[in-house]
Amino acid sequence: MGTLTGHMIPAFFFFTFGLWHLFSAAVNYLRHPRDYCARAWQPVPFVSGKLRSLELYVLLLTIPIAIFYELGISTSFSPLEDGIIPVYRIASFQHSVVLLMFWLFAALVLISESSSALPLPYEIPFVLIGLAFLVELTVIGQEASLNAGLEGKCYTLLSFVIGISSVCAFLLAWQPRAFFVDFMFCMSLLLQGTWLFQIGLSMYVEGFIPEGCHRLQDLPVGVNGSTQCDLEDAKLRARGLMAFAFNCHVTLVVLFGVCALGLVARLQGYRRGGYDPVNIDYDGDNHLQMKPLGNKLKSQCEFIATPSISGLRYMELAARKL
């Protein structure tokens, strides 16, 4: 990840998946607000077969390429020197483990969705993606703690966004109908993408490196900490600029997300409903007993996420649940 390409490619994928999840979640919620259930992956609408799981197939195919790039191309290829792992290679192995976690998420979910060999409960995909982001958080947090300069500030801010993604994923495993949490999850994916793009520019493109900082040319390719600031004032200025840039990214991503939600609502003809008080007159002996809906609503999410159950059998099981 310690290269320009190693930041730009993940930035593209995070932003693309965040955009896809944002519009898919917005369409599903505004179309049926009461029946909304968040999904850890978004199927392609109006198609059937393997193309419906395009998002999972993209992850399965591209992540091994990313692991190969991380271990063999992005850095000087010397996985072992005298039987030990060089210090500058440890980060590459850590990033590969993070990529492997995301690959396992895609593989397990695809097996569960396409066959009955591994039926997973509705919450498990969110738990898997939450754990993947948690592993990413530990790796990025460690890199931030090893560098107190420009790079450390960039990765500290990135770790905040990753933490939000992980927390939102676990919350959606608990409450899959919480659209606000799903919206925050999509925003965090978009912000990861834009901020990784900013990190790549600010640390590896000469025209965007803050004044007073420079790249070290005598280090192996792909080593973290290769962008340094010589003077303390330059370091403080660079850290302040990155904090300001991060605030701008957060503002723009939130503004974009809200505008995108409004655009989808307008295209779907969504109208806000009024809130009128309902007066209920009842005697002490005449009352209406309400049944708790929490488990019922959650079970409906479980049935929505089970495409392998067909026709009459699906309706029969759904009727029993209700």
TrEMBL record:
Q: Does the keyword Transmembrane helix apply?
A: yes
Subcellular location per UniProt equals: Membrane
InterPro entries in UniProt: DUF716
Q: What is its main location?
A: membrane
Membrane topology annotation? Multi-pass membrane protein
Task: Tell me which family the UniProt entry assigns to this protein.
Answer: Belongs to the TMEM45 family.
The protein's name: Uncharacterized protein
